[in-house]
Amino acid sequence: MLDISGLAASINDKPILNGIDLTVPPGEIHAVMGPNGAGKSTLGYVLSGREDYVVTAGTVTFNGADLLAMEPEQRAAAGVFLAFQAPIELPGVNNANFLRTALNAIRRTQGASELDAVQFLKLARAETKRLAMPDDMLKRNVNVGFSGGEKKRNEVLQMAILRPKLAILDETDSGLDIDALKIVADGVNAQRRPDFSALVITHHQRLLDYLVPNRVHVLLNGRIVRSGGPELAKELEKSGYASLIAEAA
Amino acid sequence: MAAVTETLDTVQSVTQSGYKWGFETTIEMDFAPKGLNEDIIRLISTRKEEPEWMLEWRLKAYAAWLKMDEPQWARVDHPPIDYQDLHYYAAPKKKAGPKSLDEVDPELLKMYEKLGIPLKERAILAGVDPDTVENTQIAVDAVFDSVSVATTFQTTLRKAGVIFCPISEAVRDHPDLVKQYLGTVVPTGDNFFAALNSAVFTDGSFVFIPKGVRCPMELSTYFRINARNTGQFERTLIIAEAGSHVSYLEGCTAPQRDENQLHAAVVELVAMDDAQIKYSTVQNWYPGDSNGKGGIYNFVTKRGACRGARSKISWTQVETGSAITWKYPSCVLHGEDSVGEFYSVAVTNNHQQADTGTKMIHIGKGSSSTIISKGISAGHSNNTYRGLVRMLPSATNARNFTQCDSLLIGDQCGAHTVPYIESRNRTAKVEHEATTSKIADDQLFYCRQRGLSEEDAVSLIVNGFCKDVLKQLPMEFAVEAQKLLAVSLEGSVG
């Protein structure tokens, strides 16, 4: 599914990622943990094609294609979805409209037929119901006036509707209470299927109680310094990153 | 919600990045010689078979114009205009009186097709029996250069007592009405361009809605400038008698050409007690090429007088075209509790310049006005909102609310807001809100991450920004307006 090899990237000439090797097989959920400034969010942005980040070395292969050669919208069409840490507001743009436009843009590139308003609403309402979100989520303007928790849930709703192959969740759990956290975890769990993988970027072990990863990776100074099973997250929760930082130094 | 998606569909379908409607029809023209003098005015008046009083009115305006100077206060910049180097009269050669649609030049009908005039209107113009399309509720008075050549739905309108005809015809057939109202809202000497228009106007629309009548259909005019070097000087007069309602749609596109073309129209609206006039414009004249060469100079005077109590005049405009726009659709609120509204989207791209806004003159007690202006600048363009809200001493308890939002795309363009507020009544309330924002890289990336192309993302964000204005447009126009927004901003990012 996703093969990252020797990936290095910088922003404004400042290196952030310093050679990342990571493979996510289809159907697996991998967690990326690490302290602030380790490069976790940068990894998400580089994978989704944000222009401010310059890739200086390495390759990323996604289902056999060279991901780094694609425009952001081509990556989206190929099935890459980034749940933003701070979702962006689009004043005057209705959420349902935004999602239908996005879904149809993706469907077009895949040669699938576009959904009309009625078909789309049926699909979208089924997803909001499944995620226990109010219907008016679809009617409101994209993220405008949403609380922090609503914004995160909206990201999960978008993911559910766009049905990506690789979801990158950038600290989607931050600032959520336990109920909201469960909704987010359930949303990702509901996507689980043999051709769906997720890269879950998080600070905390808490989310991983509900969203059990196949692998956990620890990112430090732009490198993966340790990888392990779900137990690694629990260990970090106890000992913190201090020992790893000392090790790396 | 379907509308915005439709916009995006439209962008997809438009593959050309240039001005989409740059073609020229080959209908034979009948020109007056270049230049402006009393003889030319006499010629226009004769060609129009006008009565003597009309000619005198024109000559008076011409005399006033000679003493006036071009206004210099607008934030626009252009080389001097040689008013003696323009043709002031051009008409398609009449084969017979263009009284019925069968006599309309097929070239003209083809042109409407290219313009993408809504199907049902094209059907009407193509000669479909008006009775079978009556339920579509739109009448078109097509102004082709200087003479109106096709007028439809006269029967239905006549039944309701509504007069909707070329103003040249109204001068001949309804002289008393024209004499009573023409120039009473925009006097001949109001400003340089209005005076010029009064002297040489060749055609335009005349609408009269009698007392208590709700006009049975939306009235629609498609303007088009089509002759090389011909300034166009339309004159429109709409009169709504007490308790009547009318919605008037004006839309235009122009063929691509190199020379700058002057356009100086005058529109006058009069609303009596409880009358309502809604005037909607979609303006898409040739804006010049991406280097700022060519394009229309659009110097327009539009003004409505709310003469009666509780009368209401509402201007809605979507301005995407012209090299230079100088335009301030205004309301003079004489009537007690009268209402003025101005909803505007002005888009400038490349080297376009727009100085546009409104004036709300509050005279009547309890009169109220709303101004919602959305300016979008891209490329190297300059976009200025200029507005005046004046509360006269008599305007007790009058209120105004103004909101001016500017959106910048790229870092080479400019947005300017110049609001003038004068209040001479201490009970009057004036509110002004203004914002300037930029399409953020964050927003574009967010949309692209969800699968939208950069152009689609801009279109979506711009349409969201303009939503408050677009929703004021009649359905027929909303779609066209959104189409224009998308097309005008093509290539403005990246």
Describe the structure.
The complex is a heterodimer of chains A (249) and B (494). Chain A is of the alpha/beta class and 249 residues long. In chain A, 40% of the residues lie in helices and 26% in strands. Chain A contains ten helices and ten strands. Chain A has helices at residues 40-48, 72-78, 95-109, 117-130, 136-139, 148-162, 178-191, 206-210, 230-239, 242-248, and strands spanning 2-11, 14-24, 29-33, 53-62, 65-66, 80-83, 166-170, 197-202, 215-220, 223-228. Chain A has a six-stranded mixed β-sheet with strand order 6-7-8-3-9-10, with helices on both faces. Chain A has a four-stranded antiparallel β-sheet with strand order 2-1-4-5. In chain A, helix 2 packs across helix 3 and helix 6 packs parallel to helix 7. Chain A is globular. In chain A, 44% of the residues are buried. By secondary structure, chain B is of the alpha/beta class. Chain B has helices spanning 2-13, 38-47, 52-66, 106-115, 119-125, 154-160, 167-173, 175-181, 192-200, 441-449, 454-465, 467-470, 475-488, and strands spanning 29-31, 90-92, 138-144, 147-151, 163-166, 205-209, 218-224, 235-240, 245-253, 261-263, 266-271, 276-284, 296-306, 312-319, 324-327, 330-333, 339-348, 353-362, 368-377, 382-391, 399-408, 414-423, 429-438. In chain B, strands 5, 6, 8, 10, 11, 13, 15, 16, 18, 20 and 22 form an eleven-stranded mixed β-sheet that branches. In chain B, strands 4-3-7-9-12-14-17-19-21-23 form a ten-stranded mixed β-sheet. A two-stranded antiparallel sheet of chain B has the order 1-2. In chain B, helix 1 (2-13) runs antiparallel to helix 11 and helix 1 packs across helix 13 (475-488). The longest helix of chain B is centred in the first third of the chain and has 15 residues, at 52-66. The two termini of chain B are 27 Å apart. Mean pLDDT of chain B is 79; it is low at 1-18, 93-101, 122-137, 145-151 and 223-230. Classes of the chains: A alpha/beta (249), B alpha/beta (494). The A-B interface holds A 48-52, 71-73, 75-77, 81-82, 84, 87-94, 96-106, 109, 117, 141, 158, 162 and B 1-2, 4-5, 8, 440-443, 445-454, 456, 460-461, 463-468.
